[in-house]
Model the fold of this input.
Amino acid sequence: MQQRIEQLVQELATKNEELSVSKARVWIELLWSDFESSYAKAGYDYKGSDVTEKVIRQWINSYGDRIHEFAGNNPKYAHLLNIEDDLIQ
Done:
């Protein structure tokens, strides 16, 4: 699973020049856990990491270039993503 997450991190960091690799990793980990928990809360059977990866890749393709804009509008994520001393790698 870590290899899948790492690949998604690289895809997001490439798609969005506003994000450092470390912030892209935070985004991917948040999206991964939120998707799986929301899917479970909705009562769906777990379909595995393949489905989660596919959905997150679709989100990266659709929203990745401006996903950083979301953090400022959502206090649930803002404190995790507004790290001033984070350097773009």
The mean pLDDT is 85. The two ends are 23 Å apart (CA to CA). The chain has five helices and no strands. The longest helix spans residues 21-41.
